[in-house]
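Let us practice reading a record.
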Amino acid sequence: MRILKDLYFYPWMSQQENNANAIFIDGAVPTLIDPGHTHLFGVLAEAMARDRIDIGRVKLVLFTHAHPDHLEATERFGENVLRAISKAEYLYMQEEGRELFLATGAQVPGKPFQILLNQGELTLGNKTFEVIPTPGHSPGSICLYYEKEKVLISGDTVFYLGVGRTDLPGGDPERLAESLRRLGRLHVEYLVPGHGDMLKGRKAVEKNFQLILSEFFA
């Protein structure tokens, strides 16, 4: 589903299995964010094909965090595709984050991550995103803010009327609350989360942050 020029959103709609939403950024560096579980990868490829996007065009796969429902399908990409994750999340994935893969029977990533992200700008051709560390759901979670179009790609940090759980290894509710307060100060017209529906309109996004902070983190 096309949101804006060069920006596509592929929400996971099934109630039978858990999987992450995916985001595709077209342009000079075709980038796929959070491709999901390996065994459900074909569903994403078919959805992209309906938008006339060949998944073989992807040059960079980027992950908001290292949970299996976002990251396992990294193994479906060849060695010529770059992989990016935050430096903090990469370290987490080597230790307690690995437990979640083993506990759920998911495939532990075996291919290298060539790009380890820190806070700052990420330039993809003529598009510039701000990499924002948002620990809480996991220690090295990040969000991407596309200021030009006021788009926030939020992973599992914040959803429509919800947040990512903090009872998994590495979760921390206090740090999540701090992350939400930081994100809530941004001008966001499109909230594109890792699960559930996209939220559109600045007032709707602001209200969503206010409700979550008052209900979950009063």
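A brief commentary: Residues 150 and 187 are 6 Å apart (CA to CA).
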